[in-house]
Amino acid sequence: MFGIGWQELLVIFIVLLIFVGPKKLPQIAKSISKAIREFARAKEEVKRNLSKQLSIDEDSYLEIKEEEKENQD
């Protein structure tokens, strides 16, 4: 996971526990996971929109090529 070993994760957890406190730690973890989920959802939506737009552009390109071919004949 990002090149971080279990020792580093343990140190990060202890530092967070010291600075944030045990009462706020679950809230912070929840908000971080929510942000990651929203980011993943937005990324998928952008991917879907780009894919849709590219397929529309490709279809338009093929239609224009067909019209050019018909006009040449």
Q: How would you sum up the major sheet?
A: none
Structural class: mainly alpha
Overall geometry comes to rod-shaped
Count helical runs.
Answer: 2
Query: Into which percentage range does the β-strand content fall?
Result: under 5%
**How many distinct beta strands?**
0
Q: What is the number of independent domains? A: 1
Which stretches are low in confidence, meaning pLDDT under 50 for 5 or more residues running?
Answer: none
Radius of gyration: 25 Å
Helix and strand element order: HH
What is the straight-line distance between the termini? 60 Å
**Average pLDDT rating:** 84
Helix content: over 70%
Give a description of the structure.
86% of the residues lie in helices and 0% in strands. With 73 residues, it is mainly alpha-helical. The protein has one domain (6-72). The N and C termini lie far apart (60 Å).
Topology:
Elements: H1 6-20, H2 25-72
Question: What labels describe this entry?
Answer:
73 residues; mainly alpha; 2 helices; 0% strand; rod-shaped
Report a brief summary of the structure.
By secondary structure, this protein is mostly helical. It contains two helices and no strands. The chain has one domain (6-72).
